[in-house]
């Protein structure tokens, strides 16, 4: 797994010389590009080799790109590194899947919609030795587990497989969102926090990360699936 620099790229005593940005891998007739959420289409020499190296070669895979700014000081230039982001479809919950999906404690640090994806920055405790299971789930219409009626409801689920709470980890996950993100509607995301409280986030469909300052690539991470 790649290790990226943290937040903006700096030279001591000077302004930032680069940034981190979320984007989506796109494959067209064997040609690879990354569509960055804010900066648009981005490519560089041997991109396909780098994507294969980190296992991010599939169309639709989300990544964080760390890059130097171009000569204009604003647009993406030479890449520094790429980090593969956990990218999964929203899972439709069933009784049979309840145990494997899990409902262990987790904290949502930030959530926003960009690039056609529901993106979550989250934190959790673990040993670093055992994989954790992360999912965004939805319920069939009329299910008694839906606590809101104003808009689509999702739950951010975590199965820690009884892992120890030795270290604090932070990471990102992205879920393709099949909803009109140009509407004025809202979605709701529930999760079980570390105080054992059910939290519900209300998120406008036109919400997006205002700039790249919130994307930190050098976070402490463990194994996720």
Could you walk me through the main structural features you see in this protein, from its secondary elements to its overall organization?
By secondary structure, the protein is mainly beta. It folds into two domains: 18-84, Beta Barrel (OB fold (Dihydrolipoamide Acetyltransferase, E2P)), CATH 2.40.50; 87-214, Sandwich (Immunoglobulin-like), CATH 2.60.40. The chain has helices at 47-53, 98-101; strands at 18-28, 31-36, 40-42, 62-69, 76-84, 86-87, 91-92, 107-114, 117-126, 133-138, 153-159, 167-176, 186-192, 198-204. It has a five-stranded antiparallel sheet, with helices on one face. A five-stranded mixed sheet has the order 7-10-11-13-14, with no helix packed on it. The longest helix is centred in the N-terminal third of the chain and has 7 residues, at 47-53. It is globular. InterPro entries: NigD-like_C_dom_sf, NigD_C. This is NigD-like N-terminal domain-containing protein. Residues 90-203 form the NigD-like C-terminal domain.
